[in-house]
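Margin note from the TA: students keep mixing up input and output lines. Inputs are the sequences; the output is the structure of the whole complex. Example:
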Amino acid sequence: MKTFSIGGVHPHDNKVYSAHQPIQECPLPKKAIIPLVQHIGAPAQPVVEKGQKVKVGELLAKAGGFVSANIHSPYSGTITKIDSTIDAWGMRMPAIFMDVEGDEWLDTIDRSTDVIRECQLEPKEIIDRISAAGIVGLGGACFPTHVKLMPPPGKKAEVLIVNGVECEPYLTCDHQLMLEHGEEIMIGIQLLMRALGIDKAIIGIEKNKPDAIARMNELAARTLGVEVLPLRLKYPQGGEKQLIDACIHRQVPSGALPIEVGAVVDNVATIYAVYEAVQKHKPLISRVMTVTGKSVEKPGNYSVRFGTPLTEVVALAGGVPEDTGKIIGGGPMMGRAMNNIDMPTNKRVSGLLFLPENESRRVEPENCIRCGKCVSACPMGLEPYLLAKQAEKQMWDEMEKHDVMDCIDCGCCLFTCPSHRPLLDYIRMGKATVGGIIRARAQKK
Amino acid sequence: MKQLIVAPAPHAHSGDTVRRNMLLVILALLPAYVVSVLEFGWGALFTTLISIVACVGTEWLIAKYILKEEPTIGDLSAVLTGLLLAFNLPSNLPWWIVLIGAVVAIAVGKMTFGGLGQNPFNPALVGRVFLLISFPVQMTTWPLPQGFNGSYVDAATGATPLYYLKQMVKGGDSDAVNHLPDLWNSLLGVMGGSLGEVCALALIIGGVFLICTKVITWHIPVSILLTVTLIAACIGWTGMLPEGMTTGQYVAYQLLTGGLMLGAFFMATDYVTSPMTPLAKLIFGVGIGVIVMVIRLRGAYPEGMSFAILIMNACVPLLNKIRPKRFGEKVKTTK
């Protein structure tokens, strides 16, 4: 069975708590706050005014540039103000505040559950619909999807790689989505293949989801050019570069995008959104997120509209468990710890994880014993022990020479360190500083 | 709501600790230790006890009263150093020499550089080589295996197989072949030698255990053993061996006697003093293999494992300049 070739670790997958829980709709809140930055790139520009009444699916803010994404109203109601808020990632950003008055949708949106298979659209039209619907990568990076579908001149896409890996421990939303909406995802894959003008797609799924592999295999058997590839368990297999390596044995060079090796990678949740946007005219206004943890009363997978306060979702899962020490937006490897759960959810939050107190604290670091386990674990082939030491001593030039900018933040180094050294913390600090130095240098030229 | 803990990702940890790694190495040494005790009796127990207590005590005293920091003896690394030092000493060594060795190992070999993780040389070997140079007679008088029958102070002693192996190739002792223990005894450790190094089989079992539990990787031991095998085989093929000794036997003796197995699996693989990347580890191992064979064949001492490891320890900062293969380094072009 295939996997990526360098490094990686094996955290306990802990998916049993929320696995196979059917996707449940989260009820609408009374008030909602919709952040205008839910993607990588420029903030979206509001196109509504205070006091204006909007329906579900109406455009609230339009993309602020090529790398940006539209934001639509997930509710029907009245805009109360346009101000700033702190989103689930702890970032202050502009946001639209709404009083939710109901669930009245735009007439153009097809809300039926029928699966629509036919599509006669030209590639350009497909991409336009995806762009208009504000679709971004729901795997975590939130990179606007339409940008990926328009390769720069001279580059040609050869294969679509579908990310059904879900290598983050605890999270099960993509797994459940494949089980419940496999057919729609398969249509979405064909739409993307058509948009890219390619005839080959590979769906990568880790082997701890045998039912999802079976389901997608069954569907792929009826679809030309789509292949399901079961992958060996290893974190961070869901990382874009690692997944391409695992699926087609090509390594994206340092600093380059997947298109360099002819690959376009999209997450299954993104592809489901593509289906809904193209075939049903439904913009991206909600996502499935996993609410889980060892002591959570009703762990499960919930479909949540953006702007809903996280407290509402948590209430659905039975409230904050008594022994909670840490609440994480996302999974335990790359998710962010939050200091409260009053913030609104956004396109990026793929899960809420409640860690008990005894698993929440970092262990005091000891001396580095130079065991080299971080070097073996790094999926990018870096030397975390060295980078961390250089960051400590502020040797920024040295860090750049040792390819710190290749770090993908996966956390394998810190996960594996027997001395509990805060390796990734130092490397992140170095990466931010070195990145600043590189940008300043580019500007000077 | 109560205060939540906030920290950067990752929020999960493998659960691995320094202590766990040290404990597993100590565990892996136990089979060899059991054999040693059966063969060398009270001497083996006594020497080990002094060595461990002295190592832990020295570290504690230095940390507490000279460095004025919280002693970290709980990580068990001093225990391991003490155990490894004892493994490298003749079991009938006078107690005060063991004590000196342990103090030198920890004080000079480890704590002067700043404690765990900072020392360039394997502390146990620093201790051993210090003793070897200071007390050459006592350090090269190995007791013969007599179990608990032999007394600690006045054990029967004899030269180790490695002495005869050297004489054999040098041509100094025409009767050398007949002094060697048979191969089975070499594998099981029924022969003279340092306390813990005699039973190759037990050491191999421990080493394989360490590789399986991912405490160490295969690179260093395998490259050392392969290098020694290759050089010994070359000696055989070039016709330097006397009558009555085949190339295969010679290779087996080189592998199974002396400190080779102990060094390859337990001393050279010491985290702190070995390189990080697979390629550097292989070079490190080959270097040790070459040096140990040069000393065994031409050096003044019958055995050279300690020197070989220490010399290669000195090369580690250089070897660590070898970068691991970066992701995407070899670009496979799209057609």
